[in-house]
Amino acid sequence: PGGRPKSECSHPVLKALVTYESKLMKETVWYDDGIIEKLKLAEILTLAEVNSLPPKENVLHIQIAIMKLIRFRTDRSFYVFCNLLKGYSNTMIQELGHNLIEHARSSDDKTIDDILYGVPKLPRHHHVIRDQFVNTIAVALMKMNLSQGRLLVHGIPGSGKAMAVANSIRYIVEEKSHFYPTGALWMKI
Q1: How high is the pLDDT of residue 14?
Q2: What is the mean pLDDT of residues 43-63?
């Protein structure tokens, strides 16, 4: 119960994990930083896997077990894990999350344009910027990236709906590293 099929990360992600494994194990206190709980909430670790981890006193064994589990997750899980690290108050852990993502990306031949397939470029003459609306859309899309869902944006023609969504997608791909490695596909219906 609570198990999942094993599917190893892609080569660029595995390479990043191997490269930064010693730093991850040295700089991250898995229980004290709440990372294990967040990995469970993000459905990267199952409840059964969390319950099977060694006692809190065996920090090294916990770290080895978690690194092994993360290797046998999808690339999406890796990027969620990195974003969890980037969200911590400890700047060393934040930097580690950022470095992991950058290393995986540099080993991958996908460009931002590949990830943002068909997403319109923002016009240079951006007259009205709706930061709050764009942030609301970005948060909804990031939540949907963790699970599934639909987002409906409606309004009168020409009010900037498409540009606000495009701006949100570009922001969460370029700044928050979501939608890696699968990307975002823009379709007109």
Answers
A1: 85
A2: 85
138/72 Cα distance (integer angstroms): 28
**DSSP summary character for residue 73:** S
Sequential DSSP letters for 76-101: HHHHHHHHHHHTSS-HHHHHHHHHHH
DSSP string, 134-177: HHHHHHHHHHHHHS--------STTSSHHHHHHHHHHHHHHTT-
| Cα–Cα distance measured from residue 41 to residue 38, given in angstroms and rounded to the nearest whole number | 5
Contact by Cβ (8 Å): 142, 176 = yes
Give the mean pLDDT of the chain: 79
From CA 183, how far away is CA 37, in angstroms rounded?
Answer: 27
Which tens digit of pLDDT belongs to each residue from 87-111?
Answer: 888 888 889 989 998 888 776 666 7
Distance in angstroms (rounded) separating the CA atoms of residues 121 and 144 = 22
H-type helices in 108-158, by residue range?
A: 112-115, 131-146
